[in-house]
Amino acid sequence: MESSIGATEGQERPTLAYALLTDLYQLTMAQGYWACDKLDEEACFHMFFRETPFKGGFAVACGTSQLAEMIDGFHFSEDDLAYLGGLDAPGGGKLFDPAFLDYLRDLRLSVDVDAVPEGTMVFPMEPIVRVTGPIMQCQLLETALLNCVNFQTLIATKAARVCLAAQAPVAEFGLRRAQGAGGSLWASRASIVGGCASTSNVMAGKMFDLPVSGTHAHSWVMAFDDELTAFREYARIFPKNCVLLVDTYDVKQGIENAITVGLEMRAAGERLSGIRIDSGDLAWLARYARERLDAAGLTDCGIVLSNDLDEHTIASIRAQGAQVSSWGVGTKLACAYDQPSLGGVYKLSATRMPGDERWTGRLKVSEQSAKLTLPGVLDVRRYVWGDGKLAGDMVFDVNEPVNAEGVIIDPADILRQKRLGELSYRTLLAPLARDGASVLSAEERSATSARERTMAGLEELDESQKRLLNPHSYPVGLEEGLWHRRARMASDLRGCRGVV
Amino acid sequence: MESSIGATEGQERPTLAYALLTDLYQLTMAQGYWACDKLDEEACFHMFFRETPFKGGFAVACGTSQLAEMIDGFHFSEDDLAYLGGLDAPGGGKLFDPAFLDYLRDLRLSVDVDAVPEGTMVFPMEPIVRVTGPIMQCQLLETALLNCVNFQTLIATKAARVCLAAQAPVAEFGLRRAQGAGGSLWASRASIVGGCASTSNVMAGKMFDLPVSGTHAHSWVMAFDDELTAFREYARIFPKNCVLLVDTYDVKQGIENAITVGLEMRAAGERLSGIRIDSGDLAWLARYARERLDAAGLTDCGIVLSNDLDEHTIASIRAQGAQVSSWGVGTKLACAYDQPSLGGVYKLSATRMPGDERWTGRLKVSEQSAKLTLPGVLDVRRYVWGDGKLAGDMVFDVNEPVNAEGVIIDPADILRQKRLGELSYRTLLAPLARDGASVLSAEERSATSARERTMAGLEELDESQKRLLNPHSYPVGLEEGLWHRRARMASDLRGCRGVV
């Protein structure tokens, strides 16, 4: 029962074997650290992104539940080691030293990991995950960590945007267009974290205890000699769950056939829950269908819309006066069609020699100031106005004093500053793993609990920050001392002096 | 050792449990077919797409190796059945009938599946996969089939485009930005099928026997006190595999440090394989680096470029005269950034009652002629000119006579016709499963064999059909008789007559 990515046969989640789910260079660098005697050097890495996805005003953190699984299941099996031992170096000989593979055989993680809880609103340049521990271990986690947090944060954010636009239950049903089976499972979970009411993905429902839902397909109608017979049979078999898809042949005729069946159901003491329209001019057809249903007395029959929807088409359909009881959203959500990747990065920010108390900040410089990384061991203070709305976030070094006035400075623009000192705040990073083992509770891993955090987090944002287009940007700055330390380090590394 | 999606601990691939990897409505419809006594009705479904991805001229079929796995592993476990048995219907009561779940417990697939081999060039409106068998079984496979064939065909096609542009080895290293762990594994495999030389994804390398490759990261350089020391240490540890990343602090200084190490390696009888540039103006920096390396006598040191590349940026960099020995392509390939989903569909095309010999064609009509489905049990003839280049494809019904002149008609435009009768042809669909069990050989499941088919298939296309922008469209048409049968069926279903 070992080894799987995202699927499970038994009630218990299996032990996962993620150690090889990494870029080859992480393993060759690991051998490098081993060969350089850097095994006891400690490092601190942070995962953060530089731009909010979908040109939006916020992102919804997600993926750290899978990260906890990855950490708990991290080990190299004999089979993994045999595979690595067989790899050739391009220039001749074997790529890996057998003594290094022996080291990997006995390797057990000892890192500490802190992360913002799933469902937390996150913004550019703030650490979402912090990993501290032996530098080699930090790097061996990098690729898998980025894979799960980037992807799931992206999808949870997309789902939140779609749900903000819909203002009615949204069912995610993107499995057939999702990027692979494993990807689809975590995409379905992230959709729930972001606010969706249900998913069509049965395996995801089972694995993550998510609400599942569905109607029927065009093929059901095509499998009968005529549409009315297909509808009647469906209503007979599923009287408690009857939503009829009306656009297999002709939407108007389909609506009339659904009304016939809806009245027959009513006469039999049942209820037609709804009709679904999956093609055509959805805004016009939804209004037309509502009129026809109401005229027939089926005012309690809902209308479900689907067909390549996203937050923008949903907003447009609602603006045109369609009354929609629920929405089905597939492709555009499950693969985040308009931006299918979040560019989150994982950067070394500090190192510490064995026996040292103090950390040494590390920085990667670049031609563009916006691409500077952040030095130190960091956390985030989230400041809150008296009315409960968020005022701004401060990225600060946990080992340095924080200026008393609570001054934050935009990472790329010293002229943009804010003083938050008199407001109350909370810090964002919470323990995820200690000494290489996850410390998350079942509640902290639950998708539906994370969805509650998402809902509460959206409440704390101003409407202008939640706009789909051109949102007001949420203030995130570096603690004043951190800003200046970083500027000095950058100019030192570039070999010039005195800029700041 | 049961149950996993894409990962495996042992040498043997585990039995996969994919039955729940489906939309809920497939299972409720299955219960419907069971309740309607349609268990013995046979159906024929085809998977096809309507538009070539990336506005390109071709697609590379991929995903049927995973489909074969899904079919072989298809079963409902006791745990799956317990989960389904616990689901509530929205209107009250349980969603599934216990007697139906008993039926699922004993269900073994008996479908026949035919598919084009992986690495085959495919075009709009032609069947890539054909499934025939009991209608319920055909539908229970739909979602998972679409998931794997849509996604992997998309990525293999993207990889082929990138490799056409690169004309040098391409390493896929998109794992950190791929859509989930499971998705990344099949994406890496599909990248190899499409033509990539290697992947950074070690787990994918192990699972699918793919070439793996990698260099080192910026963090390696940052973990030392200075870049030159970091380079020297890397060269000492990996003298047979030394590619140095030169842009951690300053690219020009990085190149000089790499040259220093390259000359030291030469003096020691080793060779600096290459340098990698991962930021900045890649076209300019590659030319600059080539000059500096040549001036230092390191003419055998290659240049590797990476940083958000796709086929268009690669073509532009090459057009500016950069001499690049290999390319690293991540995000834009692994999630097919500019079109992250292929809209392939799976449509019912024929049904047959128990005991019948003949199939009855089925059609879904739509307001748009282009969205008509295809009726019948179909295959594709691929016609070839005397010089080996492809002339065009005919979609035909295997149970109907094919017109002797080999006339094909554009599915959406009767005025576009072609006569191919005098050319030689081959048919595309090949057996993938018989009576519910895969019949693919190990060679037919191999990614590297599929890559050879991709290379051969690209050779058969005209250059104009492989252009990245505005390619010449490849002729695909319906066999003349099929075209007219479909038109008659459509007008009958719409209730009008005599259009054709």
TrEMBL record, chains A, B:
Its EC number is 6.3.4.21. Keywords: Glycosyltransferase, Ligase, Phosphoprotein, Pyridine nucleotide biosynthesis, Transferase. Coiled coil: none annotated. Transiently phosphorylated on a His residue during the reaction cycle. Phosphorylation strongly increases the affinity for substrates and increases the rate of nicotinate D-ribonucleotide production. Dephosphorylation regenerates the low-affinity form of the enzyme, leading to product release. Pfam families: NAPRTase (PF04095), NAPRTase_C (PF17956), NAPRTase_N (PF17767). One of its GO terms (cellular component) is cytosol. It comes from the Bacteria. Residues 194-351 form the Nicotinate/nicotinamide phosphoribosyltransferase domain. PANTHER family: NICOTINATE PHOSPHORIBOSYLTRANSFERASE. SUPFAM superfamilies: Nicotinate/Quinolinate PRTase C-terminal domain-like, Nicotinate/Quinolinate PRTase N-terminal domain-like. One of its GO terms (biological process) is NAD+ biosynthetic process via the salvage pathway. This is Nicotinate phosphoribosyltransferase. One of its GO terms (molecular function) is nicotinamide phosphoribosyltransferase activity. Pathway: Cofactor biosynthesis; NAD(+) biosynthesis; nicotinate D-ribonucleotide from nicotinate: step 1/1. It is an enzyme of class 6 (ligase). It catalyses: 5-phospho-alpha-D-ribose 1-diphosphate + nicotinate + ATP + H2O = nicotinate beta-D-ribonucleotide + ADP + phosphate + diphosphate. Belongs to the NAPRTase family. Residues 20-150 form the Nicotinate phosphoribosyltransferase N-terminal domain. Residues 381-484 form the Nicotinate phosphoribosyltransferase C-terminal domain. Catalyzes the first step in the biosynthesis of NAD from nicotinic acid, the ATP-dependent synthesis of beta-nicotinate D-ribonucleotide from nicotinate and 5-phospho-D-ribose 1-phosphate.
